[in-house]
Write a structure and sequence with these properties.
Distance between the termini: 105 Å
Largest sheet: 6 strands, antiparallel
Strand content: 15-25%
Number of helices: 0
Structural class: mainly beta
Strand order of the largest sheet: 1-2-3-4-5-6
Length: 198
């Protein structure tokens, strides 16, 4: 492989260093023009460029790879990352996403949150779930515990169903409605120190 190397000095254009690899069709240049330092590697199909100014560095290329033992990125102002295709973040050990202000996660399509154990907690505020349909499923027990009141309501209907259903209150238990029906296919028992019907 034979290379052609050139260094050009110019009063107004600055310094240009050029290396030409005619066998592989690759030309490498570095230009120092007094304002920017521009490094270009141009091949037969693709070209990559690094432009360094006094306040910025811009990298333009087809593939950008960073391989390091430790990577630290920080900014004193906004940070934005955008992908026009798939975007993936993974870790073989613990991962943390944290914000000192508001945190929003959204998706225009479906969203999944999975884990061996998933905890959702509002440390000092409400936790709300909303959607066209909300469903919950467990292989064993499902429990809801409230420090004060708990309610289940439906604009049209609400139902509790199971192989065995128990409704219990430490104080007063009330069942009321414009129409109320208690029905059993085998045995129906009403008991108490005082039971009023009618």
């Amino acid at each position: 492989m034979s290379l052609v190397c050139k260094i050009e000095l110019h009063k107004t254009n600055g310094v240009t260093v050029t290396v030409e690899n005619n066998d592989d069709g690759i030309t490498q240049t570095m230009v120092f023009d007094g304002t920017n330092i521009t490094t270009t590697c141009a091949g037969s199909d693709e070209t990559s460029t690094i432009t360094q100014a006094s306040d910025s560095i811009t990298i333009s290329c087809k593939s950008f790879v960073v391989d390091a033992e430790t990577i630290t990125c920080s900014s004193s102002s906004d940070t934005q990352m955008t992908s026009e295709a798939k975007f993936g973040i993974s870790s073989t050990k613990d991962m943390t996403l944290a914000s000192s202000a508001a945190f929003t996660a959204s998706s225009d399509s479906s969203m999944a949150l999975t884990g061996s154990q998933v905890d959702i907690e509002g440390s000092s505020g409400d936790v709300s779930l909303s959607g066209t349909n909300i469903s919950g499923e467990a292989d064993s027990n499902v429990s809801w515990d409230a420090g004060s009141g708990a309610s289940i309501s439906g604009a049209s209907s609400a139902s509790l169903e199971g192989g065995s259903v128990s409704v219990e209150a430490d104080g007063t238990l009330s069942l009321s409605g414009s129409t109320a029906t208690l029905e059993s296919s085998s045995t129906l028992t009403l008991s108490g120190s005082l039971v009023n019907i009618g």
